[in-house]
């Protein structure tokens, strides 16, 4: 009986530790389910701030995200290289959501601008704004699959600058605003199909910079 008790206690302790170790991922999963599917949506304006910055906002995912943020009554700083497309996007947002959504256009070619210059170009038009959300969506890839040595050096440099360097320096320009008020959200748009979850032969630079 004396030898059985310590064995029982050992099994009990191990079982408790195992149960405790299982609780953390289970609770994490339940929290994720609540946040993603069951809980009420966040009021972005209240939780983060009244302005959002979206890069690469004139087409595709970036444009859709800009409209979604505008639908939550966030004003938008729109970052892109084509002034005509930026103006068209801003006009479409104002036409749909009215005066409740302000817009500011930041014209910059991220592939041809140095890091510090990117920060300065973004800092000036957002000075004094209550920036709450930053979406680094701008992305660049080469057309058509090709081996690394076949990629033009200028194209490779542009992809790295837009996908990594620009996102870094824009974030650097915005973080002090968020840090000062101790709240904010930064979304870096990657690519699940190209680099996030699997390798992508013949698109290696894009996959690496968007992983």
From TrEMBL:
Q: Which keywords, in A-to-Z order, does the entry hold?
A: Membrane, Oxidoreductase, Transmembrane, Transmembrane helix
Q: Cite a single GO MF annotation.
A: ketoreductase activity
- A Pfam family of the record is adh_short
Provide one Gene Ontology cellular component.
Answer: endoplasmic reticulum
Is the Cell division keyword given for this protein? Answer: no
Keyword field contains Transmembrane: yes
> What parts of the sequence cross the membrane?
6-27
Highest taxon of the lineage:
Eukaryota
Q: Which Gene3D superfamilies match?
A: NAD(P)-binding Rossmann-like Domain
The record's family statement is: Belongs to the short-chain dehydrogenases/reductases (SDR) family.
Spell out the protein name for this chain. Uncharacterized protein
**What organism does the record attribute this protein to?**
Gossypium harknessii
């Amino acid at each position: 009986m004396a030898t059985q008790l310590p064995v029982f206690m050992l099994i009990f302790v191990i079982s408790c530790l195992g149960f405790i170790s299982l609780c953390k991922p289970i609770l994490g999963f339940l929290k994720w389910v609540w946040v993603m599917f069951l809980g009420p949506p966040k009021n972005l304006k209240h939780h983060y701030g009244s302005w959002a910055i979206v890069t690469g906002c004139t087409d595709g995912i970036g444009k859709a995200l800009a409209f979604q943020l505008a639908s939550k009554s966030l004003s938008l700083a729109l970052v892109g290289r084509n002034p005509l497309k930026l103006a068209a996007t801003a006009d479409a947002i104002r036409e749909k959501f009215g005066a409740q959504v302000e817009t500011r256009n930041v014209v910059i070619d991220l592939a041809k601008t140095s890091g510090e210059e990117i920060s300065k170009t973004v800092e000036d038009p957002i000075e004094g704004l209550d920036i709450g959300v930053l979406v680094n969506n701008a992305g660049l890839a080469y057309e058509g699959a090709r081996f690394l040595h076949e990629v033009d050096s200028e194209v490779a440099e542009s992809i790295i600058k837009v996908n990594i360097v620009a996102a870094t320096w824009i974030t650097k320009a915005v973080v002090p605003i968020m840090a000062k008020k101790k709240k904010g959200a930064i979304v870096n748009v990657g690519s699940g199909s190209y680099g996030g979850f699997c390798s992508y032969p013949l698109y290696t630079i894009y996959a690496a910079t968007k992983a």
